[in-house]
Amino acid sequence: MASAEDRLLMLIDDEPAQSRLITALAARDGWRTLVVRDSEAAIATLGTRQGMQLAAIILDQWVPGDEAGDLIRELKDRRPALPILMLTASASPRQAVEAMRAGATDYLVKPVAPDRLMRALTSATRLEAPRDELQPLTEKMDGAVDFDAMIGTDSAFRAALARAAKAARGHGAVLIEGESGTGKEMIVRAMQAASPRAKLVTRTLNVGAIPGSALESALFGHEPGAFPGAFERQMGALQACDGGTLVLDEIDRLGPALQEKLAETLRTGIVRPIGAAHGYKIDVRILSASNIPLADLVAAGHFRADLYTALAQTIIILPPLRARPGDIPALARHFLHRIGQQPGLRALSITDSALALLAAYDWPGNVRQLQAVLFRAAVFCDDEALTADSFPQLSQLLGDHLAPSAQVQDGAGVTLYTADGNLRPLEEIEADIIRLAIGHYRGRMTEVARRLGIGRSTLYRKLTDLGIDNAA
């Protein structure tokens, strides 16, 4: 990572309040921020002494409006190696696609969470070999909320789902553990959808994203005059969720003082706002998530045993993706199907060589990272199928670690069955085979027709009937 004195950020933004917020957030991690208000000033700044010291750019899409892509391209033309993050109020995948094709490294949706901003800046400014393909992307695509719709046959994963589905029907506290990106949020959503409290109030607090001083008030609430700046009464999440469910993400980052106060609240069922003379009786179900095993923190003396006991009436542990490589082909096809439904994108298949490459990587960012990598590859794919060539950074990272045996074609590029075990329609299978052939033979339609054993005219007719783009 660049040293602190080199970490200069240019923020292209004409909203003073937002500029102050991003400047303050970036400063927490040692960034200095140079704010410019329009496109002309941004381009002029690149040629200055300060401009030559820039380590990253954040562009608020509102400043150039519909010309955001043009500005990104011009900035990249002048400084190709400079990472550009686009900030926007829209979660439209079409804007993400356009920004990435123009050269943006990442895409942030307002209001951006502090930890999301820091991860984006950190990832964008690594000094290692370029890994643009591995940058996180906030596509904001809705995930499944039905246990039966979740992808994966790995025994540990299916056991976790079964345990979650059973726990969802009760009222007890549930602790979900697993590395970042393994699907904890998906499990929480599915549990809440199947819960007897599904139609009651639900609120989520990210413990790691809220400063400790503000977190106590967010959880427990406060009375007027409880501390400087407390001019009005604020109801905390625990009281607001009375009868419903409170989701506490990154519970492992809860400080000792708040651990004690939360443990007391869960033991007595009474929440006492800051500065209040009395407490309030509550009935709240707690679903909590942790990136690391809380039992290890308890053993190390960093987490209260009584709070752990209260939160972990049921424990669900999600395995990392590297422990379930057999699920990667099904996950990849599932994500490509969802990606193909987004505005500005289209349905793609994936070849065996690409699947072998994906299976060989250890996925430190787990399922979330796999989705982001596939999204990025789909954005830049001009063929009908993703191949190993669609993931150049993965190939670079793996080098000689991809065994030749892993590259043997085994027919995994086309799936015959749906998630419920039934055969897919023949038309869909035929479309996948044609897409795979077009990708494999790099759009040489005469060769595609010859290998499929049909005439060119028949092939083109099938392209039309099946709605496949003509790659000739």
Quick structural gist:
With 472 residues, the protein is α/β, with parallel strands linked by helices.
User: Whole-number radius of gyration?
Assistant: 25 Å
- Largest beta sheet: what is the strand line-up? 2-1-3-4-5
Number of beta-strand segments: 16
Number of helices: 19
The CATH architecture of the largest domain: 3-Layer(aba) Sandwich
Helix content: 40-55%
Layout of helices and strands, plus pairs?
Layout: E1 8-12, H1 16-28, E2 32-36, H2 39-46, E3 54-60, H3 68-78, E4 84-88, H4 93-102, E5 106-109, H5 114-124, H6 155-168, E6 174-177, H7 184-194, E7 202-206, H8 212-220, E8 221-222, E9 234-235, H9 237-240, E10 245-249, H10 256-268, E11 270-271, E12 280-281, E13 285-290, H11 294-299, H12 305-311, E14 314-317, H13 328-340, E15 349-350, H14 352-360, H15 366-380, E16 385-386, H16 392-398, H17 426-440, H18 445-452, H19 456-466
What does this structure look like?
There is one protein chain. This protein is an alpha/beta fold. The protein has helices at residues 16-28, 39-46, 68-78, 93-102, 114-124, 155-168, 184-194, 212-220, 237-240, 256-268, 294-299, 305-311, 328-340, 352-360, 366-380, 392-398, 426-440, 445-452, 456-466, and strands at residues 8-12, 32-36, 54-60, 84-88, 106-109, 174-177, 202-206, 221-222, 234-235, 245-249, 270-271, 280-281, 285-290, 314-317, 349-350, 385-386. The protein has three domains: 4-134, Response regulator (Rossmann fold), CATH 3.40.50.2300; 147-317, Rossmann fold; 323-466, Helicase, Ruva Protein, domain 3 (Orthogonal Bundle). 41% of the residues lie in helices and 13% in strands. A five-stranded parallel beta sheet has the order 2-1-3-4-5, with helices on both faces. α13 packs across α15. It is globular and about 85 Å long.
